[in-house]
Amino acid sequence: MLIIAMSAPFGWVLIQQQVPDAILKSLMTLSNEPWVILLIVNLVLLLLGMFLEAIAILIITYPILAPVMAAIGVDPVHFGVIIVLNLMIGLVTPPVGLCLYVVAGIAKVPISDIVHELAPYLLALLAVLAVVTYVPASATWLPNSLGSGVIR
Question: Following DSSP, what letter does each residue of 17-74 receive, concatenated?
Answer without folding.
Answer: TTHHHHHHHHHHHH-S-HHHHHHHHHHHHHHHHHHS-HHHHHHHHHHHHHHHHHHTT-
